[in-house]
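Researcher: Let's continue the batch. This sequence belongs to Putative chromate transport protein CHR family, and it's 227 residues. Same format as the previous ones, please.
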Amino acid sequence: MVAGPWLVLVLVGCGALELAWRLPPRSGAGATGPALHAWPLLAAAAVGSGGLAALSWTAFKVGALSYGGGFVIVPLMQADAVDRHHWMTDGRFLDAVALGQVTPGPVVHTVAAVGYAAAGVGGALLAALVAFAPSFSFVLIGGRRLRRLRGDRRARAFLDGAGPAALGAILGAAVPLAAAIGELWQALLLAAAVVVLLVLRGGVVPTLLGAGLIGALIVTAGGPLPA
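Model: Same format as before. Here are the structure tokens for Putative chromate transport protein CHR family:
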């Protein structure tokens, strides 16, 4: 995906453009509070400190910015886990995504695998907790206001603008994941899965489990295991 870790800005920007198009800003709008300007400094401090602070910041971004589904946040997560902090290789990150897809709670399980690679079992538990906290807090605190928010023209305008960008982000997430494929038999399984899902209209879960079983049989029979 071209946007890579900046995809969240793309989503927010598309939503903001749609909002501005439908509802031009009123004159005399107040300026943002000083607390808003502190977030870039906190983010920079967390990333720069490394270790558990960097892991917590990555997990928080995954939990708080997964608009449009878990795959939307994959390039951002991959940029942190593989390119920036080197907790995992591309192949191991692809395994983490696969683990998330064959278990309930795909985003939390994937970021937990990233946390395990960064700091063992404690890192996995920390990453899962931090990633789960934003959505849990959103529902717990704002649940009573969700119905009102659904009827708000400004909220609908923002979501209508961000929605198409989210679809593009989900599609674009397949690019860095496909690039992590290291063995020929994986590429053949990818092609077979595309045919089953898009042409034969097969189910997602049977396709995932079937491909996983075939991969296990290939490696058991002596096939190469991806690095």
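Researcher: Any comment?
Model: Residues 4-23+45-180 form one domain.
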